[in-house]
Amino acid sequence: xxxxxxxxxxxxxxxxxxxxxxxxxxxxxxxxxxxxxxxxxxxxxxxxxxxxxxxxxxxxxxxxxxxxxxxxxxxxxxxxxxxxxxxxxxxxxxxxxxxxxxxxxxxxxxxxxxxxxxxxxxxxxxxxxxxxxxxxxxxxxxxxxxxxxxxxxxxxxxxxxxxxxxxxxxxxxxxxxxxxxxxxxxxxxxxxxxxxxxxxxxxxxxxxxxxxxxxxxxxxxxxxxxxxxx
Length: 230
What we know:
Blueprint: E1 2-6, H1 10-21, E2 25-30, H2 33-39, E3 45-48, H3 54-58, E4 67-70, H4 76-88, E5 93-97, H5 101-109, E6 114-116, H6 118-131, E7 135-142, E8 145-150, E9 159-160, H7 161-164, H8 166-170, E10 173-184, E11 190-197, E12 205-206, E13 211-217, H9 218-228
Parallel strand pairs: 1-2, 1-4, 2-3, 4-5, 5-6
Antiparallel strand pairs: 7-8, 8-13, 9-12, 10-11, 10-13
């Protein structure tokens, strides 16, 4: 997969590097030479150019990318121009960052495929960490539904999946268990390794330090979180 990331501020740079680490071919673009220089060794290709200039964009074969991420946040006009130019040049999937409701509306109107609202999403993450500190990761995959990684702690320690009654009481499904398994290293020292059970069975036991992956609705997660914090 070839991905262009346009705008190399904190959000854009992080996105570009993580995409590269996950195996994507990444073209990182910004008009700021210093930002481009900082990231050049951590992506496939980094280039300084003006994304509102069609000739400059064609010079990096932008029409060949599978996805373009417009991560520009501080300059709304440049963000809008970038999305417009990408759509004009035939990029099929354009994901754009919006910093306000009006910005979001305009991006939709000019053809952005998907909108990222970083500030809102960060607010949601921070709020979740405050009310549910046991949650390690949370992924929203549809409106009102999430995949959550968490530690269930003492409340469910030593119980099998059947005995936990998580499915019956909370209408949540356990889809994986991550355990720390002790072993003796080659030099004779006690150590731990991580094992992931991606097909847990009813009689598998939940330990206090296990990371449990659950899927379900926000309403049902909130019920579980409320009881975990009691």
